[in-house]
Amino acid sequence: MLFVGTPIDCFRITSIKVRWIMKRPNLPALGLELSRRTVLGAALSAPFVLKARAQEYPTRNPRLIVPFAAGGPTDTLTRIAAERVSPLLGQQAVVENRAGAGGNIAGELVARTDADGYTLLVAGQAILAINKALYKKISYDPATDFTFIGMLGVIANVLLVNPKTVPVNSVAELIDLAKKKPGEISYGSNGPGSLTHLTTAIMAHQAGIELLHVPYQGAAPLTTDLLAGRIGMTFTAASAAMPLVRSGQLRALAVTTGKRSRFSPELPTLVESGFPTLDAPTWFGVVARSKTPAPILAKLRKDFNTVITSEDYAKALEKQSIEIMVVPPETSDEFLAKERKLWSDAVKVTGVSLD
Fold first, then answer.
1. pLDDT (tens digit, 9 = 90+) per residue, 193-203?
2. Which helix (H) or strand (E) holds 47?
3. What is this structure's pTM?
4. Which chain regions cross the lipid bilayer (predicted)?
5. Segment 20-45, tens digit of pLDDT
6. Are residues 220 and 169 in the same domain?
7. Do 162 and 109 share a structural domain?
8. How far apart are alpha carbons 219 and 236 in whole angstroms?
9. Same domain, yes or no, for 190 and 144?
10. Which of 95, 94, 93, 91 is nearest to 58 (CA)?
């Protein structure tokens, strides 16, 4: 009789001996005599073998799965981190790009891998806070399938208007104008359910104003139409926004970070502008599979934290207009729960649902 379970469960212990009967086609039954001491020794030693393997981690190259194509800001951020964490790990961290389905391809890939620390996911709001509410069906649960390691960086998004079509100088003036012209001010986004869409929708909902949503497939056509006055406003990354502001083509009203951005300290935050819950920059962290052994998680967190808090890393990110935000492991669950609440509420406000 074959038992399935732990090493001890797999055997029926009698008194002194254990008899395991294996029957094979066309072969006589094979009797294997094992002492109870042998069986119990093997069972009790298993956790120590696993612990030893965890302490040897890593013995091969860990992978960092990026949910975007190569060359974008998230890919660049990941490669900056990978270059600096590899010497600490003692193995080269390999960056792999798995773009598509709003991050779900990458999320599902990592959720199916072994919890051994060799396949890590670079994830932001989409995978960890939005997609569960946005998509009708996804095969992973961000709350239970992943364990947070560290925050790689945050990107401040800027609220931009074309001053020729939306002649305002502050968020308060924008709200007043929108109340006078309900549904007439249009805003561009990177598509239904995107961060730009949800940020604008929750802002409009909280302010009690009606805006016209115009979705785009990519930032380039959106920016072209904003400059031409075909749409009135949008949110976009500070690195792309500020050159257009300094040239006088567009006007910046606020940033989405909780504190003023070091790259544009003259701009107020949305929090300062009357939206206390809209601390909503674009952020990306590293997560591992849940149930990854504690010694492996401890090493990953230690090594990534060493990188994230280094002056060299901060200088490299500054060149990309990316800021540091440290989220300690002990507060990561609270941080992610807050993010899921904010963005699931935003999805409900929009009523959008994707297949």
1. 999 999 999 99
2. helix 36-56
3. 0.83
4. none
5. 333 344 444 444 444 555 545 555 55
6. yes
7. no
8. 8
9. no
10. 91
